[in-house]
Amino acid sequence: MNSNGKENGNDGADENSDKGLSDVTSDGATSSGSTATTSSGKEENPEEDYIRNHLKTYTWYHGLMFGNICDKLLKWDHSFLVRRVITKTDKFLCLSVRIASKVYHFRLRTNQHGWTCPKLQEKFPRLPKQRYEHIFEIINSWSQIFPSIIAVPRRSMVLQHDWIQLDQILGKGAFGEVFKARFTASGATASIEVAAKRALGDAKRSKIQEFCHEASIQAVLQHENVVAFYGIASLEEPIIVLMELVTGGDLEKLLKSNLKISKVQIIYFAMNIACGMRYIASKNVIHRDLAARNCLITKDLKAKISDFGLSRLGPQVIEKSIKKAPIRWMSPESLLTGTFNEKTDVWSYGVLLTEMMTRCAHKPLWPMGIKDAQEHIKTSDAPHRIQNGEPWELLAIVDACCDRNPETRFNFQTVKRQMRTIYTNCLAAGNQQQETNQTPIGPTSGVIPLEMKKSNDRQKTMNTTLGRKKSKDGGMIKSSKSKKSKKSKRKFFSFRRKNKNGIQLPTGMSTVPVGSPKATPTSQAPSLPTPPLNTPPLPPPQTSVTSVPSPSQNSAPPISGPPTSTQSKSPTTTQ
């Protein structure tokens, strides 16, 4: 966003798409966004009541929507939808239609006599010039003279306000409030806890656009290391965005308040963030504000990436002026040319690692001021290299992520692979056992050590290979790796049959078990060797797992190393 409060890139098309919608006709109709004063002195908007009581029941009504999104939804000729428009001075309903590969926006107007659409009547002269009680009657009349129109249903991410029950307030910002809420999806019998971000009613158009833009970015992301997005309630006011409720706080506060957090846990958080950023980059999303303050921690100690207010869709954007830009986390090419892409997010990830290594004791490049820090990033070969960081295993990753040359700088696929290797090596080396004197930070069932998975697979393979197999007739034979001779294949019969007289044994065989004092051969033919029946299978290999004490429910969440349990938890679905 630039200093004027307008967003660059694709979102700027909205100004042109909605241009001319604020016109005033001479038929005496009031704007649908106008207000009236009741006898009690309270101002009410007739449009709001109509939306709440009638319009929101129709799937072709999409609620608040900006022009650039509308143009993408109207893919076919003669397709249409009804949406809510916000300009700098007004709010109103409009009918958007694609005709001959061009999108038209016709403003809907109302007064005490009903609804009308003057511009649509001009475009289609055969449409009766009259007022209608409901908007759907205008569309029905239009379809009779233009029968090929196609209604575009609203997206699944658009929610009804009736499905949301706000609870306690968690925070408040410049143009919104965050609540703890309950959400019951359509057709669901049980509700879930969520975080609800509600826009203030008097927020300006630019702020509302930022609000909706962040929701549209989150709508394309679904990953266990990204805060989940449930939808946006935009059919009526106020606009509410629903997200996963993450109760563990942000990573910055966690590191500051738990200085003895284990090294393996730090590396596990870094691996979580690398996995999340690799997924975000694969969706052509540029985060542009990756920092410890924007990473949230769940109850089972998993890091999730949040705050997509500055994010952009696309492989690369160029934006030289950004309001509230995170200078200390930005790459040299972003500061010099305004370029943002996956490699600039990788640079920010390297700065995030330095925050973790110093436990967020201070901001990056402290004690430099913002101007000195900006100049240092532009000119220094290794501006974020630190000497006494812990874990030391991350030092090489920081240098690779903060490489001044974007061509040789790591991408997130490489970062993810390197972080997995570091995490696996730390577990294999017993670093978690060496740090048992440090304060644990909570339940450890959420982390799956990679080496344990290999051990379990190896154990399963050994049990399968060295175990006892069952013969076709029900007996037990011992598996062997030695090659059997093709000339002489011996068959072994089971002596565990209930009806011993029901079969005819070969000459020289007896129904009495071998080794019994009563076992006598029935003929002079040599007896065949009998395999051992009670040979036990080899025991599986032993794997030692360090147990971590679980915290009490009444105490503050303790800090511990990541779990070594082989059972994985499903990602949290509530925030």
UniProtKB/TrEMBL annotation:
InterPro entries, alphabetized: Kinase-like_dom_sf, Non-receptor_tyrosine_kinases, Prot_kinase_dom, Protein_kinase_ATP_BS, Ser-Thr/Tyr_kinase_cat_dom, SH2, SH2_dom_sf, Tyr_kinase_AS
PROSITE patterns membership = PROTEIN_KINASE_ATP (PS00107), PROTEIN_KINASE_DOM (PS50011), PROTEIN_KINASE_TYR (PS00109), SH2 (PS50001)
Protein kinase domain location, by residue?
164-422
- Bias class Pro residues marks the residues at 528-542
Question: What are the Polar residues biased-composition ranges?
Answer: 501-510
Q: Can you tell me which residues bind ATP?
A: 197
Q: According to the lineage, what is the superkingdom?
A: Eukaryota
Which of the seven top EC classes does this enzyme belong to? transferase
Q: Which GO terms describe its molecular function?
A: ATP binding; non-membrane spanning protein tyrosine kinase activity
Keyword rRNA-binding tagged: no
Q: Which SUPFAM superfamilies match?
A: Protein kinase-like (PK-like), SH2 domain
Domain SH2, first and last residues per copy: 60-144
Q: What is its EC number?
A: 2.7.10.2
Question: Which ranges are annotated Basic residues under compositional bias?
Answer: 480-500
Catalytic activities: L-tyrosyl-[protein] + ATP = O-phospho-L-tyrosyl-[protein] + ADP + H(+)
**In what ranges is there compositional bias, type Basic and acidic residues?**
451-460
Ordered alphabetically, the record's keywords are: ATP-binding, Kinase, Nucleotide-binding, SH2 domain, Transferase, Tyrosine-protein kinase
Q: Where is this region: Disordered?
A: 1-47, 434-575
Chain intervals with Low complexity compositional bias: 22-40, 543-555, 562-575
Q: Which Pfam families match?
A: PK_Tyr_Ser-Thr, SH2
Q: Which family does it belong to?
A: Belongs to the protein kinase superfamily. Tyr protein kinase family.
**What PANTHER family does UniProt report for this protein, alphabetically?**
TYROSINE-PROTEIN KINASE
**What name does this protein carry?**
Tyrosine-protein kinase
